[in-house]
Amino acid sequence: MDRIACLCTNVRRAALALTSIYDEALAPHGLKVTQFSLLRAVERHGQPNLTSLASATGLDRSTLGRNLRLLEGAGLVRLSPGEDQRERAVSLTPEGAARVHGAARTWRRLQDSLEASLGGEAERLVAAAERVTAMARPGRGQGELR
In the prediction, which pLDDT does 141 show? Predict the structure, then answer.
């Protein structure tokens, strides 16, 4: 693979590689890492509405809605009316909770293994990812990138 200076290309390559590693590990549970992450977010937030879940995950509502409909079709989440007529709430089904619980052990083993392989770079990787993500938040002008 060509060594290039482009930050975006290098981060995309790393993201694709990590996604592949996590997807392979979670495959026995019938999940991809994107699905697992979304299910874990629902688990962490209880019965969030779509707006708060979108904010928590960094997904736009359209993408979030599509992903949740797939998980609903698989019987892993339930979408129901929220407190407001215009809003919907999401919760894990018993099958979804069981799937997340089983996959979480696999995820933890892989996470520990990757952290051990990366050493101190793991924390720096997460910190850099958080800083880059913050640069793209709405309301931030390009002049504020540092």
Answer: 44
Q: Where are the domains of the chain?
A: 7-128
Per DSSP, 84 falls in state: S
pLDDT of residue 1: 79
CA 90 to chain centroid, in Å, comes to 16
Residues of the chain with pLDDT under 70: 85, 138-146
Give CA–CA dist 82/61, Å, rounded.
15
Question: pTM, whole model, 2 decimals?
Answer: 0.86
Number of H helices, E strands in the chain: 6, 2
Tokens of 90: 């999401």
Choosing among 3.40.50.720, 3.40.50.970, 2.60.120.10, 1.10.10.10, the CATH entry for 7-128 is 1.10.10.10
Question: Are 145 and 135 in contact, with CB atoms under 8 Å apart?
Answer: yes
Contacts of 14 (CB under 8 A, 6+ apart): none
> What are the pLDDT digits (tens) for 34-59?
999 999 999 999 999 999 999 999 89
Write the DSSP string, 82-98: -SSTT-EEEEE-HHHHH
